[in-house]
Predict the structure.
Amino acid sequence: MRILVTGASGFIGKALCRELLARAHTVRAAVRETDSSAAAEVQQIPVPDIAAEFDRRALVGGVDAVVHLAAIAHRAASDSELRRVNIDAAVRLAEAAAGTVRRFVFLSSVKVHGEDSGAGAYSETEALRPEDSYGRSKLEAERALTELAARSAMELVLIRPPLVYGPGVKANFLRLLRWVDSGVPLPLAMVRNRRSLIYLGNLVDAIARCAEHPAAQGPYLVSDKEAVSTPELVSRIARALERPARLVPAPQALLRIAGMIAGRRDEIRRLTGNLAIDSSRARRLLAGRPPYALDEGLAETARWFRSTRN
């Protein structure tokens, strides 16, 4: 297949381009600026601002599928900027693709369902109740793309991953790696929760399947096979880093109060709350299982992290 990847210079995009090449696809990459370290087989097209005014037909012309990754995710942004990049840019690209491209794959987020799955696990049939501006922007983009696809012959696939980790990870997971590596005691021993994550290698495998599989349409929640508690995750990260897991008890109520005082309420909630995913639909309909186990993904992430300390 001939596949366009937007956001191709990012954490997920670089790994996806490698995965698609390994599957013998032709890759066109929309990048902020050309990367001399990219594989020679990748056709790089500089797009400094994916939401700017430009003729998108040059991007989508001649491709079979579009994988749209470009978005604002981790940096602070106003609602208007989230709309411009996460919603409007996605819709404009899909409009340009609708006449000629067979399939449009959109990377959304589990956050369209909310922030806490309670005692169960989110499935694709769960209510859509995003709680922050990022989640709302992803849901609005999903709805606009669904309406557009319904008016055309273009197939639409929506992928909703949880927290992604792997070599090159940033933001919250990188901060957790640093905490565990530092040996600072973490007051998480009493936390009893379940959280799903997805290793970068598992995510790009799922995205590639969504681009390739003839039956792939609609929303898919994707994750590693195993969901773990935060203390278990910390223990496994420590083992991968060859560090002791220093967990000390602290009631969750005290953690939340401390987080509010420190201005990190959402971060504490992510460490102590439940956010589990039922990804059985993706495994069943896309005929594949995550190729990497949690410990394998953590080992690769730890190997990369240790290399950054040298």
User: Anything to note?
Assistant: The first strand starts at residue 2 and ends at 6. The beta strands are 2-6, 26-31, 43-46, 65-68, 103-107, 155-160, 163-165, 197-199, 218-221.
